[in-house]
Amino acid sequence: MLVRLLYASRAAVQLDAEELGTILRQARQHNPAQGITGALCFSDGTFLQLIEGGRSAVNALFQRISRDPRHTDVLLLHYTEISERRFANWTMGQVQLSRVNPALLLKYSEGTSLDPYALSGPAMLRLFEEWLGCAAIVGQG
Question: Where does the BLUF domain lie (predicted)?
Fold first, then answer.
C-alpha cells in the first residue's frame, strides 16, 4: 500500500548550502532501496518535505526524521493512502523557491514567505502540486 506524507520541521542549527546538499545526496542515495520518492523544500531554517512510498517505509522514515537531532518542532501536515505516486520522478527533488512567483505563495498564505506552520496540510499539499506544475522542483537524483 502506497502513502503520501507531508511534514514540516525547523532546523535545530543553521544549515548552509553545503549541508543541505549533503542531506539531499544522502536521501537520493538511500531512498531508492526503500522505494521512497518525494521532494524537499528548505527556506529560512524550515524544512517542508513530501514523501511517498510503501506505508512501512514512509512511517519508518518519518520516525527517524522525528528523532533526528537536526530537526525540531516536527509537525505532520498530511498523511493519506494513495493509488499512485505524484512525485515518482524524484528520489528526492528539491524545491527551488527562487523559481516560484511570489504571487503563488500569496495564493495560499498571508505573505510571500513560506511558513508551513501557518497553513493547513491540504493547502501545503496544493502548494507542492503547484510547484510541480511550474517546474520549481529540480534534481531528479
Answer: 2-93
